[in-house]
DNA sequence: TTGAAAGCGCTAACAC
DNA sequence: GTGTTAGCGCTTTCAA
């Protein structure tokens, strides 16, 4: 029996009270007599009444929902962030709308617009690009709080949004430092799109060389965070006149491609070639030999993003027109990364 | 400038027309003159008006949103399903609300109820349990179409919901058949919760033994789909009086645990012990030696689930009270699995 | 403490 | 083809 939905009117009628009284009981208004509460609750029970959040949202001008834009939820990095974020949001009574941008900045902005039409209370964004004009203008004039996840925007958009960032630079500095200390000089760094995480990783690598006063014999290969690029870049690094003796993959997708190429060439990780990846996955832990990583707590990244957004949400007040207005300034949270040395790193093969 | 949101009233006033005309233009009503369309669109542009989907939903009695309950989005299996589902939903203009049940059946039902209050048009469920009474009663009387993902419910709930199922049995039969043909007789099967996928896998294993007229020397270890269980089960299988010579892990989490134990014991996969896993992940492909798997197209699983739901949604009509009513019967879609033999499977070590 | 009434922003009859 | 009107289901003044 697909039950026709009961509305508040019916509850009020059955209880013989006004709708406003039902509303007060259900929303925990202080000024309700125990008798009233009883009558109403009895009616609610007997009808199996469930309030319509749509109508509540329209009236209250808040949906208790948050839009989350990722490029690809099937990427372990992003799904772990999503888990952390959803759990934190749910704990505060918020629901999460999720969408995939498929690495297309045009979809980023389309989804932001859609979420705005759905009147989400806030936005959690892991954008496909840091310089899309459409996205920029949408965010510059957004009416809700926004938290960027590991992204950095310039201009007005950047000034309006909060962000949760990972300290890729430090982790990468330690990773490359470890390789240099093992005797490597020609480190190959495979990066993804030109976004903050790529820039910071490059800086970290430079830091490591600079701190040791070494010539910049490293090679950087930029591209997309995809296995194809990981593989092509690895080919390039190994086929160079002066081949890299150690490779650092800036993400799990790149690692997949790199490993595929390494295996096809019959190279032994941690012997013929040293290898480091960014972000822990089951593969890095269980591979033989285990693969060194620049690690971070991805779930905490999502959790912090959600909590930052929630704190901005709570800091809102309504102006005289009944519209929400953010009173708090955007904030930036920096989360640590940590290099974990593993047997995939060893002295270079040609070190006599 | 956080822009106060324009509403349809303002657009109508600016264009000097009635609200209903604005509505008609925006919703593509056939009977509108080009002149009217122009006037309205000009006003819409100049105000940057974006319709309020909340109000639309309340009025139209549909939200164009779907609730998706998973146990843990950070699990590669589920995030791939989610990607497939979200992409298909988005293509038809639907948004996805995502929540994690954390493998807790009580959260399953709580989230279903919440989604119902949010008036989602349909539900996509990868439930934590197939026998929770709360979930059962909610689903038995649900007002919207429901698609179960790789789950099977009995009773009224099962009769009301559609489902997309994987043919685990065939894949497992081939996997175990392969092991038996290599000479293994004591196969250890590690399973998760007592749900359809576990039952089917067990049946597949039995099929393989039966087809060859072999004694049932296999061992089955049931538990949770978690690394801990994978590890403990592997210990048990290897420490038995008659240790298993081949292990089949019923999922990627179980594989993680199994591999950890195998490595700690210094056993060589594909030599001292044969290994098969269920569902492809980067680890199974890139491990050395590569790990045989019972494979399925997880993204297609999500896509089919979404498309099945969408087809049920399209088959709805409104009754005289303006309520939606499903006209189509629930459907079941069965998707294939495929065993992929790899070097992790070899004749048993004791085979002279 | 409770009820009556207005209205959130939109759509869909219905009338012209 | 366009305007007027009556709500969708709820919350929230405002009075009583």
TrEMBL record, chains A, B:
Task: List the Pfam families hit by this protein, alphabetically.
Answer: LacI, Peripla_BP_3
UniProt-listed PROSITE patterns: HTH_LACI_2
Residue ranges of the HTH lacI-type domain? 6-60
Q: Which Gene3D superfamilies match?
A: 3.40.50.2300, lambda repressor-like DNA-binding domains
Keywords recorded for this protein, A-Z: DNA-binding, Repressor, Transcription, Transcription regulation
Does this UniProt record's set of keywords contain Repressor?
Answer: yes
Q: Which residues form the signal peptide?
A: none
| GO MF | DNA-binding transcription factor activity; transcription cis-regulatory region binding
Specify the superkingdom: Bacteria
What protein name applies here?
LacI family transcriptional regulator
Source organism: Conexibacter arvalis
Its taxonomic placement starts with: Bacteria, Bacillati, Actinomycetota, Thermoleophilia, Solirubrobacterales
């Amino acid at each position: 029996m697909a039950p026709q939905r009961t509305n508040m009117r019916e509850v009020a009628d059955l209880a013989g009270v006004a709708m406003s009284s039902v509303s007060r009981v259900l929303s925990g208004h202080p000024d309700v007599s125990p008798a009233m509460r009883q009558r109403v609750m009895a009616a609610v029970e007997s009808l199996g009444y469930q309030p319509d959040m749509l109508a509540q949202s329209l009236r209250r001008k808040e949906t208790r929902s948050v839009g989350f834009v990722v490029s690809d939820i099937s990427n372990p990095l992003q799904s772990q962030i999503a888990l952390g974020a959803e759990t934190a949001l749910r704990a505060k009574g918020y629901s999460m709308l999720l969408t995939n941008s498929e690495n297309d900045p045009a979809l980023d902005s389309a989804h932001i617009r859609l979420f705005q039409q759905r009147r989400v209370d806030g936005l959690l964004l892991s954008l496909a690009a840091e310089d899309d004009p459409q996205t920029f203008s949408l965010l510059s004039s957004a009416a809700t709080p926004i938290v960027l996840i590991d992204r950095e925007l310039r201009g007005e958009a950047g000034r309006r949004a909060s962000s949760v960032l990972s300290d890729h630079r430090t982790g990468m500095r330690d990773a490359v430092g470890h390789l240099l200390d093992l005797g490597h000089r020609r480190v190959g760094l495979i990066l993804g799109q030109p976004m903050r995480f790529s820039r910071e990783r490059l800086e970290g690598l430079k830091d490591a060389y600079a701190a040791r006063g070494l010539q910049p014999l490293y090679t950087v290969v930029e591209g997309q965070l995809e296995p194809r690029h990981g593989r092509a870049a690895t080919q390039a690094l190994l086929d160079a006149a002066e081949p890299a003796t150690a490779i650092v993959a800036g993400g799990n997708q790149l690692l997949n491609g790199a490993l595929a190429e390494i295996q096809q060439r019959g190279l032994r990780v941690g012997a013929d070639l040293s290898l480091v990846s960014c972000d822990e996955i089951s593969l890095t832990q269980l591979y033989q030999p285990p693969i060194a990583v620049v690690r971070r707590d991805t779930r905490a990244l999502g959790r912090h993003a959600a909590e930052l957004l929630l704190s901005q949400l709570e800091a809102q007040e309504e102006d005289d027109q009944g519209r929400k207005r953010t009173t708090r300034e955007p904030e930036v949270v920096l989360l640590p990364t940590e290099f974990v040395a593993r047997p995939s790193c060893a002295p270079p093969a040609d070190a006599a």
